């Protein structure tokens, strides 16, 4: 028996490849499906099943394309109503894979159709459970991401029952392989551990420890983080079907001349610059939004740019395909093309370049003493609760577009985050919104803490 976790950092997502006797199953594949088919081919195995633990909200799954390519059967749990060919398994149904078997456990709560997949070893013992978004290391799936007839409290009640009757009854040494890790918006505070055991979760997971249903409902529905705008769109795509991934790549990976690029921009397209933030700062196309491939690219695109927005890409040469693939993972299929040679073409045409000024920690100290710069903190509330720069205005990046109108366009804004990635996104958003005087702190508050800690305060309970 062979198990491989395929982890994608920018989405904090884990897919799984399971193999026994030259038959394989894949659980929750990403849109770029060829990577899973390649594993099976390299190992001389045939993909028999493709399990979807639920209709995912945070990414578009590769299940349909993978089934088309390999002949594997798409498997959902009870209550799923996909708009394409799939097998709807019953609760407790056993499916054979080579010399072992997989059991479908219906675990509603994160969504009504959520399942976990229990893997038996080749001696017939319960070995591991693939929990999707039902149970994470240190957390459980949030119950507010499903649009429909159920409130978050009703789903939380279902989740409590699922944990009590399906997962807490498993042997304590059963391995737990979750669908997400730290950083995913599908939970509140997921651990960085890539796997766990039932025993570890019963000992350390706040939700697994609670034995009273009402207390559980209050705990899992409290302090839920912001839901990225694309989540409900992706859930619909996963339920109803999508354009083949290869077609998306072919239609988007179109090199554009300067004339074509400018014509599309003048026609209302949004320029998305995916280069490193510090490179972007030295010269960029006016109005471009910088969301670098070096960070949580897909999540921030899905948070700040509306689904269906027509996009023009500026990327480091050779990185265009990666950007398009990562956009397609979250259902963004409206890329019109890429500037043929990136910023080199813009510079060669002697076009005007915008720039974002950046300052080091030491420079900030002198700057804040002698100029009228106003600080803007774009970190999330939990980060700000730990420390912030004295006198800073706080607007989390995921709320900046909505609250931009509350900021004075005539003020010199000095923006910071934890390390400089989000502050450059914020600076580009403000510039595109007509703010003339924006700058970013290199290295963010971590740089400030290490060089000029006197600029940082430990705030009281009020983190606004």
Automatic annotation (TrEMBL):
Keywords carried by this UniProt record: Hydrolase, Metal-binding
MF terms in GO: hydrolase activity; metal ion binding; sulfur dioxygenase activity
Nucleotide-binding recorded as keyword: no
Gene3D superfamilies membership: Rhodanese-like domain, Ribonuclease Z/Hydroxyacylglutathione hydrolase-like
GO biological process: glutathione metabolic process; hydrogen sulfide metabolic process
Keyword match Hydrolase: yes
SMART domains: Lactamase_B, RHOD
Rhodanese domain residues: 265-351, 369-457
PANTHER family referenced in this protein's UniProt entry, alphabetically: PERSULFIDE DIOXYGENASE ETHE1, PERSULFIDE DIOXYGENASE ETHE1, MITOCHONDRIAL
Protein name as catalogued: MBL fold metallo-hydrolase
Species of the source: Flavipsychrobacter stenotrophus
